[in-house]
What does this fold into?
Amino acid sequence: MLAKRMDGLRYRVFAGCLFPNGEGAKDLANNSSSDLTIIPLDVTNDKSVDLAKDFVMNNLGADVLWAVVNNAGIGQGGEIDWTSLSEFQNVIEVNTFGVIRVTKAFLPLLRKSKGRVVNITSLLGKVCLPGLVGYCMSKSAAISFTTGLRMEMTKWKVKVISIEPFFYTTPLTKTKPAIDLLEKVWAKTPTEIRKDYGEAYKEVIKNACVNLLARASHKTYEVLDCFEDAITAKEPLTTYSPCYLPDKLGFQLLGTLPSTVTERYILTYLDTKVKPAALMKKEATTASAKEK
It folds into this structure.
């Protein structure tokens, strides 16, 4: 959507696609001008990023590289106890190291043009939610990278911008893929851990995830507007936070409250009397002992 918008504004766009022959890439090619170029790009692969950088350098002609937008991202779901190390590594490799890898590759061109880096992060990089810890970690690190890079690039007059949306309706926030991912993580969890938590508790987490994603806004143009301003404004903001206003105010409030209050409030998302199976069994045993 951003590639189409910037193409419509007569910017020359290099659109990095993980699947350059996929349906998304075909749709982009069929609905944009001949000035837009689709290039293969896997942000987790050094060689792929270097090839993309070389392609851009060799095809700029008299133009300069004005902006790099780091938008690639994947989701993660499931409690830490269920989540394998490889799942943590995967989400951080895309959402954090992908941003670093691409940015570092293109920084020499941006320093010459005094251009800008635009990173899509998340409000969940500032407030951590249970069941999404890996994702929150990856976005928190991306925010820190963006902040640090912005200060370091000031001397080069390169602007570095963070766009921190809450939930909007994109493939990342569709309910079925998110639930499928959670079920996949659960299925890979060692049997003993699954036994301790129990299916009933897993369903609680699933329902909390569904309720959270139900808050996703359909007004995706709000995020595109932030992207456009970050790319085109003479003096863009350092941070944009597109979000449903009550949610935005809620996040700001959570950031100022004591951690005990914040965490107690967040846990209301899991507002249920169902506890992990092992805890319920222990409580039942204790109650029985007291009765005796």
Summary: The first strand starts at residue 14 and ends at 17. The mean pLDDT is 90.
